[in-house]
Every structure is written in C-alpha cells, then in structure tokens.
Amino acid sequence: MSLRHPHSGNGVAAVRIYGPKVDFDRGPAVAFNVFDWKGEKIDPALVQKLADRNNISLSVGNLQHIWFPDKHEEEKVKASETVRSKKNR
C-alpha cells in the first residue's frame, strides 16, 4: 500500500487495495487496482497478462452490489456504465 511512483509530482500510489486494512480480516482474496504514474487505473486484463508473464497468479473479477460513498461518484458512474454495456451485448 505504500508503493508510490517515483516520478509522479505528488507521489501517486501504484496500487489501491480495497477492504479491511488488517491482513487477517481480508480473507484469501484481495481486491485491488493498479495505477500508472498519472494516477489513472490500468486495465485489469493488462495487469493479469503482465502477472502471467511473471508467473504470478491473478484473476479478474467483477464485483456486484457494491456500496459507493459519495466521494467516489466518478468511479460509481464508470462502473455502472461498464455493467450496462456488458448487459447490452
């Protein structure tokens, strides 16, 4: 959680882990996103491909029925649009 991009102006976090901060409360699965030096989320499929190349086992999943606090309104809108577009396929 303390991993930061060295060349970003304000020390952008490289990884955001979701869920409890205490390891033993998280369980066997960990939900996270990886970010570039600009703070933009890297596509999870790309993260999985890069992990596979380095013999790291990851899987991509979609969370449903998630509660979003008001401060994450932009992420809520993006997630909703993604779910709607997948349903319309």
Summarize the structure.
With 89 residues, this protein is α+β, with helices and mostly antiparallel strands. It contains 3 helices and 2 strands.
Q: How far do the termini sit from each other?
A: 36 Å
Strand order of the largest sheet: 1-2
Work out the radius of gyration: 15 Å
pLDDT below 50 for ≥5 consecutive residues: which ranges? none
Helix content: 25-40%
Write the layout of secondary structure elements.
Layout: E1 15-18, H1 23-26, E2 31-34, H2 44-53, H3 73-87
Antiparallel strand pairs: 1-2
Fold and architecture overview:
The chain is an alpha+beta fold. Helix content is 33%, strand content 9%. It has helices at residues 23-26, 44-53, 73-87; strands at residues 15-18, 31-34. Strands 1-2 form a two-stranded antiparallel ribbon. The longest helix is centred in the C-terminal third of the chain and has 15 residues, at 73-87. It is globular. The mean pLDDT is 77.
